[in-house]
Amino acid sequence: MQRSLVTKVASDQGAKFDKKSKRMENRKEIFKDVRKGYFYDFHEFRKLGGKRFFAFSKPSELKDSRLFPAMKARTLSQNEVDLQQEFAGHVTLVLLWIKAYGEAMCDKYRLPFVKHFHGEPLAQYYEISALDGFFFKAFKGIIEKNLRKERPADRHDNYLFFSGNLKPIKKKFMENEIVGHAYLVDCNGLIRWKAHANPTEEEITHMLDCSQLLLKDARRTLDSEDKVAFHSR
């Protein structure tokens, strides 16, 4: 009886120790990511404006293109949006940022895109303000409410507020956490062009030219689908 009691106590203590060790490891991992990610990005931002490369002049080949990550978010008009479902039949400029600096940068991509493709039904854009960090997520309701007040009403339907898991997105799709990111996504949900930080005039030209090429592909796809639907009647 005494032996089994001692064994149980030892087992409980061992379990507590394991939990504590796991918490400590998780905490160390978080601090490591913060130090490595943020401070490196901040140094790069101060030195180079956060720009690691210049955008290409042509869309990437299909075989070299990644799917835009699955992302569900709520617009400022309080509608739930599944981005992957929104891409079908469109060419979409997706603008993504974490820091306020990034939003100002993303505006420099959004404004010429909206001006150039005004009235084009197959061209659309989405802005994504991504919330990162436990502190900010604790106040996500207040932050979202303030964004709704501060942003013009005509942007609310296309302005997404994302508070989900950002870690895989940061790791695979973001060059620098401080700057804004722009992605041209085709009608299949593939990222065909991307840029980040403040754009050069040349990059804006590339973005518009690539959008035109992707729109041609989108129209061709829609036409072929219509023909198939017509002949299957």
From TrEMBL:
One of its GO terms (biological process) is mitochondrial proton-transporting ATP synthase complex assembly. Pfam families: ATP-synt_10. It comes from the Eukaryota. One of its GO terms (cellular component) is mitochondrial inner membrane. This is Mitochondrial ATPase complex subunit ATP10. It comes from Stylophora pistillata.
